[in-house]
Amino acid sequence: MISWIIRRLFAGLVTVWFIATATFFAMHLVPGNPLDNEKAVAPEIRANLEKRYGLDKPLLAQYGIFLGNMARGDFGISFAQENREVNDILREHFPVSAVLGITALLFASIGGILGGALTAHFRGRVADRLVMVAVIAAISVPGFVVAALAQLAIVNMNSWHGSQLLPVAGWGSPSHIWVPALVLGLGTLAYLTRLMRSSMLEVMSADHIVTARAKGLSAMQVFRRHELRNALLPVVTELGPTVAAITTGGFVVELVFAIPGMGRYFVQAVQQLDYTVIMGTTVFYGAFLVLVVVVVDIIYGFIDPRIRLYGADQ
Amino acid sequence: MSSGLYEIENLQLSIGDLHAIRGVDLSLQRGRCSALVGESGSGKSLTGLSLLGLQPAAATMSAGRMCFDGIDVAGIDEQRWRGLRGNRLAMIFQNPMTALNPTMRIGAQIAETLRLHRGMTATAARAKALALLERMSVPRPDAALKRYPFEMSGGMLQRIMIAQAVACEPDLMIADEPTTALDVTVQAEVLALLAELQRESGMALLLITHDLGVVARLADDVSVMYAGEIVESGGVNDVFYRAAHPYTRALQRSMPSLLASDVQLQSIAGVPPDLRRKLSHCSFMERCGQAMTVCNQSPPLLDAADHQRSRCWLSHTDCPQPLREAWHRG
Amino acid sequence: MSSIDAGLFTPLQRDGKAIKDAEPLAVPGLLNRLAANAQARLSFAVLVALFAFAVLGPVLWPQSAAEQWLSDVSVGPSRSYQALLVDPYAEVDLPAAQQLTAVNANTEFVDLVWPPVDGAARYAIYRKLANSDTVAGLPLATVTELSYRDRLQLRRKAYVYRLVALDAGGSALQELSLRVSPVAALSVFEAQMHGLVKTGVSAASLQGQQVTIPAHPLGTDAFGRDMLARLIHGARTSLFVGLVAPLLFTAFGTLYGALAGISGGRVDQYMMRFADFVVALPFLLFMILLRVSLGIGPGDSGINTIILAMLLLSWPGPARLVRGQVLQLRGHAYVQAATIAGAGRGYLIIRHLFPNILPLLLVSLSFAIPSAIFTEAFLSFIGMGVAPPTPSWGSLCNEGIRHMMSHPHELIFPALLISIAVLAFNLFGDALRDVTDVRTRQRLI
């Protein structure tokens, strides 16, 4: 078990290295050097800057410096905002995104698991059909449209009521969290509902469920002890991609609702071609997502003894 | 007929427009092993599930009489059924690899039945489960309790299924193709175990199978099922040596037999009738080498001999003697 | 038991000679099964309509997606109308007036004249829409003359002008008001720009003519561009990216996966390990990263860049799928039998491999298309997609969301089209999967 976890962590580390390398070389595809975009600067200042960012060294040396910095958790200094470390930016903005993302994830996974399990049990009834139509619709509407419509709804609701029931945008109080988190989690909620439903249907028709019923267990006992855990397995494997979807979905939601999270900051950095911030954020998020996948793998191992005892071969 | 442990008369079951069980009579006695034989799709597994009230939710079921140990089970509610299942009525299935919960330890799965019906504590249930595995000759039973199904072989898993089924000392055990998914060498061991348990406990055993060899080894009585109905029933020796129904004989000739190894195997030409249609003629008529004009009407279950009944006009008292003799000569 | 006639115990006369075994079930072809599926038919019809919209749209609706109608900025759905040609910069002699009068009232300019008020030092002019209740805030202008030309974004609506005569100290002496409904007009310069009248002719000679302003069935955007035309051209961009990118990466992935699967052994291992790494890259982040690093040249729409970035990141999906199938097929007895019988590799691929992976690829493709449409929309929405002025549904949403509160149609139409397209592709993919009985777990974003 321990050695299996260590193996997973090591594989994750190698993946992070690959992500960092890909990021580095992708950014160096950019013709010329990043300082060319800056306003005309005095040659000595420019030389200083190049030295500071290591741009005067050969590519491989730069790569070495970059990897070393990454390994120490030093993502460099922002090009666009002088004297601001990328780490400071992450420290300030990432927690906001994390709060929003975790709220959305909780909403989506709890709702999806319950929704999927319930619709599976009431398969074919009107409620099931309605939920499935809603799910398909929710999967097909882009997140930014949902965000915009939600904002429009809040504005209309506030003006209809004559007072501010919910804030339209911004961050700071708990009331700022709910609507963006619901919007952010909606697509994932729909996806997980669908996944859980089909997985539940599969488990419900499994042989061992007949065995459980032949033991004399009640429908509720069969559901709790035998169906739920087995039906959860495919949902748990999807948690990694789910976190990724919520992370990047957060970019748009933060943009629309003016939430000072990492996503909004990242989009700004991209528009300003702030190379160090782009590289730092990509590697940071990449490593974060790899970590999530590893953690999900380990959780999966706890739920599914087959993986825990024999190890997973992709 | 004496009153048995479980009496079923004229069991009917439909799923949508599919009339899957079209009149099954069974009489199961304590201490006896009855076999229900038929090809796949004949409705024998569905019959087994119906005896536990586990027919599919979409099915509609009716029976002239369905009486288990004095209880009219046709009319009882789900809660009373649950009190019987796993307790007085137990069932084991064809594929032990999939019939056990893959994510639950074996010990917990056996203990579940005991805690449910006997109200045992976890410790007591564990001790009983251990004793059961020992009884089933599972090697290293204490380790086996902590294992998961995928860590064990099919033969061991079927022993565990049996342990789970007999945990509450049921009056009737239904074994649905208990050895079909197992290796031939393991089959014999599992069958021996089943026979031994039945002899010890005096429970009734309903063996559902397509394998006549298994029937010959274990069963006292046999019922042959075709297209959702019992076409012949009787004592094993009577039915095997003096089959009264053409289907029974065709079935014997289509299988590698322990009894007649020199007979060339013959397949049964044709296909079973479409059970979505209402049958007014004998269900086997279209494939039967003996078919007669009278077969355009469905035959009732007729007495073919003492304790042997057949759903074939050949057993009718009006059937001309030369025809009968020709049949018995084979 | 009643007795039965002995005549019935005679052999049955069968019509046919032998007892027939079951006929093998005729399995209808993929297309027939699809055609029998209501969901597939409906979603396919929607898809055909969308593609017709994109392909035939420019023929049926020849308005340019870039032409700006400054007289009709951010209007909702509108009909075509006649407009008077005027020259807003021509000097006009204004007559003296007995009361507050509008001499010329058209949507290019309104000339107001009024009689002098005793003691007035200057006149403040206010304007509001006739049907709005707002009390005038800031004046349009404060003038000392007895006339004023209002050229501020006049629409074809009724306005109420209010003239307040002020003394030197700024207190109101007298108030006059006038209701004006300007007639539709277009400046000669604009008319020439749109090609509605000849160029190179003096403005004065064209004044007073009527020209026809085209309809905007879905309104215009904040730059006065026709929404329908932009949606049509946006559809071309979005559907092009949505189709071409998945086709390319599926083709590349198929080759890669087939090569890995057929090579087997160490080559296969290394090839698939590399694919695993590419899968681990956070997709949208790397789409953004590649879009930045590949860059867009001046005048380039950026479509090719997006397609290239998708190709670089998305090929491992189909590659894994195809490799899995190849390995599975290699294990099948009939393929082994064919190999033993001396079948060549090419024959095996064409005869056995291809028919087996085709349904799988089709299903995977039908889910890759909506997700590519989503990706393009996402990138364009955050400004990292196609470069303006090229429209795509995503970039139209990006522009529309800025004016969402005042002109919701600019967001709703493109958003609706994205949703319909993605929904139709998803439903079609669903039906296709059911029909082909292919089991995949495709993520829908």
**SSE sequence of chain C, one letter per element:** HHEEEEEEEEEHHEHHHHHHHHH
Number of strands of chain C: 10
- Major sheet attributes of chain C: 4 strands, antiparallel
Low-pLDDT residue spans of chain A = none
Order of strands, main sheet of chain C, comes to 5-4-7-8
**Span between termini of chain C:** 73 Å
Q: What is the helix tally of chain C? A: 13
Shape of chain C: elongated
- Biggest beta sheet attributes of chain A: none
Radius of gyration of chain A: 24 Å
Number of separate strands of chain A:
0
Q: In what range is the share of β-strand residues of chain C?
A: 5-15%
Which pair of protein chains has the largest interface, and what are the residue counts?
Answer: A-C, 52 and 42 residues
Set out the fold topology:
The complex is a heterotrimer of chains A (about 325), B (about 325) and C (about 450).
Chain A: H1 2-27, H2 43-53, H3 59-71, H4 86-121, H5 126-140, H6 143-161, H7 178-204, H8 207-214, H9 219-237, H10 239-256, H11 262-271, H12 275-303, H13 305-310
Helix pairs in contact in A: 1-3, 1-12, 4-5, 4-7, 4-10, 5-7, 6-7, 6-10, 7-9, 7-10, 8-9, 9-12, 10-11, 10-12, 11-12
Chain B: E1 6-15, E2 18-28, E3 33-37, H1 44-51, E4 59-68, E5 71-72, H2 78-84, E6 89-92, H3 96-99, H4 106-118, H5 122-135, H6 141-145, H7 154-166, E7 172-176, H8 184-201, E8 204-209, H9 212-218, E9 221-226, E10 229-235, H10 236-241, H11 246-253, E11 302-305, E12 308-310, H12 321-329
Parallel strand pairs in B: 3-8, 3-9, 6-7, 7-8
Antiparallel strand pairs in B: 1-2, 1-4, 4-5, 9-10, 10-12, 11-12
Chain C: H1 30-35, H2 38-60, E1 81-86, E2 101-105, E3 110-113, E4 122-129, E5 141-143, E6 147-150, E7 159-166, E8 172-180, E9 185-187, H3 188-193, H4 203-206, E10 210-213, H5 227-263, H6 265-280, H7 283-294, H8 303-314, H9 316-331, H10 333-340, H11 345-381, H12 393-402, H13 409-436
Parallel strand pairs in C: 1-9
Antiparallel strand pairs in C: 1-10, 2-3, 3-6, 4-5, 4-7, 7-8
